[in-house]
Predict the structure.
Amino acid sequence: MIPHPYSEDSMKDLNQARISKEDRGYLFRYPIETSSESDYWNLSELPARHLRALLDLLSPTWKGEKVRIDGYRSLGEPDLVHPLFPDETREFGRSGNRLELYEPRLTYVQKLIQSLLSIIQFEYKNERIQIDGFHLKNPAQWLRPGGGAADILAQAATRCNLKCRFCYNLGSPPALKTTPRKAKEEFQEILTRIAYYVPGSKMGLFPNAGSPCEMLAHPYILEILSALRRKTGEVLRIATNGSQLTPEIIRALAQYHPLLVDVSLNSSSSTRRRWLMKDSHPEVALSAPAALQSAHIPYSVVIVPWPFPSVEEMVKDLTRTVAYSARFNPVYIQISLPGYSQWFSKEALFDREEVWNRLKAEILRLRTVTDCPLIIRPGLFEEYLDPEAVDAPRLIGVIKNSPAAGAGLVKGDRLIAINGLPIKNRTQARSLLGMIQDSPMQEASITVDRPGGPIELTLDLKKFDYPFNPRIAPFAGCVFPSSGIPLNWSEQLRNMVLFKQVREVLILTSTLVKPILEKRIRENFFPTEVKLHMRVPPNRYLGGNIFMGDLLVVEDFINAVKEYLKEGLGSPDLIVIPSSPFHMSGWGRDLTGRVYKDIERSTGIPVGLIECDPIFD
Ligand code: SF4
């Protein structure tokens, strides 16, 4: 018998839990620090410190246009200019505060109260009163559109029962470290979040989750799923290491359709899984694919190939694990290419380039012998060196029993028309397929280019079976290597350059995006008098062998600008950065909670962001 961590209540009657008025009763509490010297604000510096804090939350405008300010004059002393960002404040530190990442207005409130406590004493009935914190009076005021049920479920992923050799949590930056609290307290907070959640608009309380652990290890997870399911009909996506997926738990999960379970199997060998994940009961996870299939629960298999004890051993195990997983009809198999940060290891562990290229070669080979889509994460790695390929509407697979599979689409097909509309690129193909799938249409025609010549096929959108379900997989079952790079990137860049009338632009991007961005710039009209320079900042903050643009932080960008200036090529009048490293909460913060505006404060050069989503798909 495998011990499981669930509370007895949850196993007896999952439907007993009801969201009562009390379930809204969790208090969202925040401390006020008053002891440290550095928190002491004197009266004369109060306006500057408040203004700086406010400018981390908003941009002043005049007649609708952004205005940059770097100082102020007090109405009481109109002759004196107070600089907001004198040299000593230009090198702002990392925040490391999770709240700053997700709801910086609350850190502003904290600072506001702290500053008042520096200069006044609160009283009640003539008696001094001390305070050391506050709580939200009305959490409904703090609702924001977000990731829906997924944001709420992420709050449960605070602990893990395994100890993977590659665990990304060992390499998380401090702001994202997860420390579990008492399970009951976390449960009450989650129930309150569910109570305030507005499913239609996906308005929810700001998240507070760190880097996710194993959500099925939460003692109250079944009650949480039960409460969430009563609140919303959304797909519930459960990421799990598989060690909790006993037949009883799978039976319990089957009550919460629609579901998509991502099972981190990592290896189909019980010996290797035991070694890799310190899983003392590997047979549970290894039985999960068959059991999920029997329970009709759609799932994907996740594999992190770890290049130890040798690259060859890793590749052999990947080959076996893909073959094993594909037997039980997962929706797709995701292969996450391995990496590590400086917090994970100060020593160099493996050559990323060598390992990733070896894995890519093997995955491309496996695609020729596997009928389940094999997705490389990050998908852009598969094709970034061939910018033409990134735009191509080419399939790397189709989901079994999907409308695409029923129509006869196969991997390698290049879509050339949908319902007679010529398809020029991947972005267009994905958006048209998405629209068609979400529409009441019964059928669509699709023309594909194949070695034997173009062929027209018919998608029967209402005909599908397990493992496909339109609620859990987009594009009628077509699978592309990655979402590609949206075409409007270069338009945004051009508009920014023209609108701001700049002459010299420094674009900071990533290794994976640079080739395609260069191609787009070549193809799009840019005024010849504008000089565009492109640089790839190294991921020095995360370190290790990380090289993803989405994981760059403000400090990395500042260092890259300084290094560029040292090259002596001149001083740009605009820095342009894709916005994805600052995507986490919609407040322009990087992984450390630091606002992107610090780049312009530190370098003195204005920064423009190209709006884009993270590319890890
Ligand atoms: S299952 Fe996930 S959270 Fe747990 S040890 Fe492995 S990688 Fe870390």
The chain has four domains: 29-135, 140-354, 403-479, 488-610.
